[in-house]
Structure to design on (267 residues):
């Protein structure tokens, strides 16, 4: 069983690269389940829309995760309650629309849990991610409640992501970070069998500042006249990880970084 997890899709270039290539990549790489973080997919580079979600589902995505920008396109607040395949971070302050965890049944009858979390350091205020994780681990067990568990940890700093990875070691199939838009080179299987990479990277144009127009972004740092951030529009690279999962144990047997198209070196 192979899961493809793709990092934050950014703007039109990220969406079109995904929509135009995912079907072929699924069949070439023999992927069984696809999870994508879509929280920057709208044309403005923040939030996502109902139309984008449906485009993603129609091109082979099984589940969309999000993060701090989840509500930036207001229509999603209503849509998320009707669409079980769209998640928001579980540790948002309640009450909040939607859910942060869901179990999905694959065609092969495998139960895949997907948990969306958000970090506390340098992020929007939300409930303590370690407290929420502790509760989750007490409530749900791998191979009892689901065959596989994927955790998308949407956070800014590597130490917090690293700690969550180890905290879920042996209790999840994959823990992968999102949000920084830069892939880290540390894909590995942790001691107790959980696949891990600190950040999946983005699906967007890398000739940019984390997906945003680079000239405008530099001008903002220089405090020159500048516009609101807007996405770069060159060819996107799709970035993420491919994890081979042992359905008997719920743990991972292999993890490889996935890089396709655009500016980054392809694998
Ligand atoms: Fe984010």
């Amino acid at each position: 069983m192979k899961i493809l997890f793709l990092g934050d899709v950014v703007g039109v270039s990220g969406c079109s690269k995904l929509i135009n290539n995912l079907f072929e990549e699924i069949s070439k790489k023999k992927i069984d389940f696809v999870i994508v973080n879509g929280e920057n997919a709208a044309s403005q580079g923040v939030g996502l829309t109902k139309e984008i979600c449906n485009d993603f589902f129609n091109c082979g995505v099984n589940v969309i995760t999000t993060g701090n920008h989840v509500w930036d396109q207001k229509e999603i607040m209503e849509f998320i309650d009707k669409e079980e395949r769209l998640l928001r971070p579980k540790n948002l302050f309640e009450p909040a629309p939607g859910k942060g965890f869901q179990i999905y049944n694959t065609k092969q009858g495998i139960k895949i849990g997907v948990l969306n979390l958000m970090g506390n350091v340098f992020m929007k205020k939300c409930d303590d991610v370690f407290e929420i994780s502790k509760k989750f681990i007490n409530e749900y067990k791998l191979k009892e409640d689901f065959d596989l568990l994927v955790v998308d940890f949407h956070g800014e700093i590597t130490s917090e992501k690293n700690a969550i990875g180890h905290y879920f070691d042996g209790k999840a199939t994959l823990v992968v970070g999102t949000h920084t838009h830069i892939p880290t080179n540390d894909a590995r299987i942790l001691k107790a069998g959980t696949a891990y990479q600190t950040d999946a990277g983005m699906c967007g144009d890398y000739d940019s500042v984390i997906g945003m127009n680079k000239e405008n972004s530099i001008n903002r740092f220089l405090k020159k006249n500048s516009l609101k951030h807007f996405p770069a529009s060159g060819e996107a690279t799709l970035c993420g990880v491919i994890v081979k999962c042992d359905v008997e144990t719920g743990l991972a047997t292999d993890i490889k970084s996935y890089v396709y198209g655009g500016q980054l070196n392809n694998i």
Residues 183 and 201 are 4 Å apart (CA to CA). Helices lie at 11-29, 50-58, 75-79, 129-139, 158-167, 214-221. The first helix runs from residue 11 to 29. Residues 39, 67-69, 154, 179 surround fe (ii) ion (CB under 6 Å).
